[in-house]
């Protein structure tokens, strides 16, 4: 059981009554995280059940930060009733350490963690407006009747008492989040009757805050007029995928209407090829819709134009060189040497004894002029060959009186 302490904007009211809501922070499935840590004052000090508010018992974010946050992750959405915070307050009497760094904090609940860059998905339960030199009570209880997974305490306040300045700091000695499992309500956490979530006090079906006009069917909880931008589902409780254009998705299935530039897929979770022109691609298949950057071609622009293309320019679909070929190169893609050259960039000249050119990489002749043989046509057929010789072996038919395979020696006649 929990004594409920409620806080107004600047005055603490003590309302003592008892309820049976569970402190969800004490569950094994609940985890905590803070934006940074000062020395060894880790976040788990705020959920260890020790309610002392001296420095050594408190979680403490690091100094010189522009924003400080503390997050409770309940593991899954729960029906939250209230959140109690115990802030640092050391010493006794006039010399005690006052909770001046506690001013102007805010308490949010969300289905996304505190590390998300935008806060549009959060629901604000409380914002403190206390200003210097006043301080708020160091123990406060905040009503927060929402269904959510994350509870986030955050501040950007830089207390003037810190001289020199130390930036935004949180010093939370204990945090208690009271509530029920999602779909339960009341002091004894009875099941909601006909809807997934309901008012934690009376069991009336909730309208999720992202219903347009916050209007829904009182029995089912289904949003009457649809969802606010960025949400989908019958109760508008689900977020549209992160890369949907303008955060818009179809209410019935959560698929993106269109993707942000540079993304594709039904959930826009795939990245367009970095070679797509203007980073634009087809939403259904990722094909580059505006062509390719210079030097690339293919459906997703993952093929390189031939080095033989002038300025590396080729058609984005076929790879045909747009501005012709470099010297000594030929073909629609300028990927072949002309009949008289070979080697890298076709910079070497074929042997003058090649008749129809040579191989691009090695310069081996396709055929030789009459009287020559060998890979490079640099060898001479035997003098006794009737009509040339084999291009590869040099063998030939001999004239009368000549002998050997290559007809290189005359037969000697004995008289």
Automatic annotation (TrEMBL):
<dbReference type="InterPro" id="IPR000742">
    <property type="entry name" value="EGF"/>
</dbReference>
<keyword id="KW-0245">EGF-like domain</keyword>
<dbReference type="InterPro" id="IPR000421">
    <property type="entry name" value="FA58C"/>
</dbReference>
<dbReference type="InterPro" id="IPR008979">
    <property type="entry name" value="Galactose-bd-like_sf"/>
</dbReference>
<dbReference type="InterPro" id="IPR042635">
    <property type="entry name" value="MEGF10/SREC1/2-like"/>
</dbReference>
<dbReference type="GO" id="GO:0005044">
    <property type="term" value="F:scavenger receptor activity"/>
</dbReference>
<protein>
    <recommendedName>
        <fullName>F5/8 type C domain-containing protein</fullName>
    </recommendedName>
</protein>
<feature type="domain" description="F5/8 type C">
    <location>
        <begin position="20"/>
        <end position="180"/>
    </location>
</feature>
<dbReference type="Pfam" id="PF22633">
    <property type="entry name" value="F5_F8_type_C_2"/>
</dbReference>
């Amino acid at each position: 059981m929990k004594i409920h302490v409620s806080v107004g904007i600047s005055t603490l009211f003590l309302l003592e009554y008892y309820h049976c809501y569970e402190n969800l922070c004490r569950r094994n499935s609940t985890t905590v995280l803070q934006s940074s840590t000062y020395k060894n004052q880790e976040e788990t000090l705020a959920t260890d059940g020790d309610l002392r508010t001296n420095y050594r018992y408190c979680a403490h974010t690091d100094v010189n930060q522009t924003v400080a946050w503390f997050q409770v992750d309940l593991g899954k959405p729960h029906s939250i009733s209230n959140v109690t915070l115990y802030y640092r307050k050391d010493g006794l009497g006039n010399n005690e350490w006052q909770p001046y760094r506690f001013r102007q904090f805010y308490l949010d609940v969300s289905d996304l963690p505190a590390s998300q860059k935008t806060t549009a998905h959060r629901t604000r339960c409380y914002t403190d407006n206390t200003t210097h030199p006043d301080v708020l009570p160091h123990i406060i209880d905040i009503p927060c009747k929402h269904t959510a997974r994350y509870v986030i305490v955050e501040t950007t306040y830089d207390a003037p008492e810190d001289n020199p300045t130390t930036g935004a700091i949180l010093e939370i000695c204990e945090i208690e989040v009271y509530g029920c499992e999602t779909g339960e309500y009341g002091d004894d956490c009875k099941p909601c009757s006909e809807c997934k979530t309901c008012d934690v006090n009376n069991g009336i079906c909730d309208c999720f805050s992202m219903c347009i006009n916050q209007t829904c069917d009182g029995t089912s909880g289904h949003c009457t007029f649809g969802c606010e931008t960025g949400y989908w589902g019958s109760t508008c409780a689900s977020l549209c995928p992160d890369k949907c254009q303008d955060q818009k998705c179809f209410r019935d299935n959560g698929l993106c209407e269109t993707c942000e530039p540079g993304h594709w897929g039904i959930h826009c979770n795939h990245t367009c090829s970095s070679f797509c022109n203007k980073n634009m691609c087809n939403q259904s298949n990722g094909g580059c819709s505006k062509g390719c950057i210079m030097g690339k071609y293919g459906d997703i622009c993952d093929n390189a134009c031939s080095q033989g293309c002038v300025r590396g320019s080729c058609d984005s679909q076929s790879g045909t060189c747009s501005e012709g070929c470099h010297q000594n190169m030929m073909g629609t893609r300028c990927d072949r040497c002309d009949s008289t050259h070979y080697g890298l960039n076709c910079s070497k000249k074929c042997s003058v004894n090649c008749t129809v050119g040579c191989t691009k990489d090695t310069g081996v002749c396709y055929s030789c002029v009459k009287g020559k043989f060998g890979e490079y046509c640099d060898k001479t057929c035997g003098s006794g060959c009737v009509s040339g010789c084999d291009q590869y072996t040099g063998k030939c038919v001999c004239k009368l009186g000549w002998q050997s395979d290559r007809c290189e020696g005359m037969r000697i006649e004995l008289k």
